Amino acid sequence: MAEVFIDGEAGTTGLGIRERLASMPAFTLRSLPPERRKDPEARRALMREVDLVVLCLPDAAARESVGLAESLGEQAPKLLDASTAHRVAPGWEYGFPELAPGQATRIAAAGRVANPGCYPTGALALLRPLVDAGLLPADHPVSIHGVSGYSGGGRSMIEAHEGNGGPAFELYALGLEHKHLPEIQAYSGLTRRPLFVPAAGHYRQGMLITIPLHLDTLRVTGADLHDALQARYAGAEQVRVLPPDPSGRIEPEALNDTDLLELRVFANEAQRQAVLVARLDNLGKGASGAAVQNARLMLGLAEVPRARRETVHA
Asked: Looking at 100, 118, 295, 299, which residue is catalytic?
């Protein structure tokens, strides 16, 4: 059995990870009493006893926890960070197993893995295969739009919606400096910084990420884009490439309480335009579900897909 300590288990992501791991016989969860959860020495002592520490903390606190683990030297556990702190940091593997061939293998071999953000999970799943296939130039101007349930906005947004009703819909991060942008650019293959405009709706969870494209500029068809996505994710357990809904509509909550990610290409060949769409649960594949997937790889409890053993650096 693998022993796991969730540092920050009382938060939304930590609770989701705990619930998932508690149902898996291969894991034993270790905890501290509530009054000792912020005690550095208590946390450090428990880190020495476990195989994996999952960090579900604000960025500064996550960095502090990494320091505690590092102080253990050879007795340090493996680390899986669900914060933003280490997603583009040297020495950390990026925890999106389906990102590219060989990525799951690298996660399985890593001692430090950074869990992806929810919006980047959808955006990268759409962009990276197209850049790798040469269908989307690395310097292409890309706009990414996303809408999430309010649970993805942190404690203040959750309290605003659940306590005061919250707005029906709102754009945010309009200073164009959202914290997810660095990882989107770092792992998408894009050399040009994309525009990213997120939004929150007055519903708890569920997410859509959309990327509009001009097919005439790219000189491709919607079928080309679909086929590239299909080729990348063939055999992937948690990523599905589906045909567009003939209604021309899609809602964000259909995958709630699952760890799935759905990708679609909606194209109008007559107008030479397309919209790429990713749908996921921001608390599932966008957070806790992804963390459990990475934990299983890091602890040797999941088989690395054979089709993805080829080493291609992300």
From this structure: 118
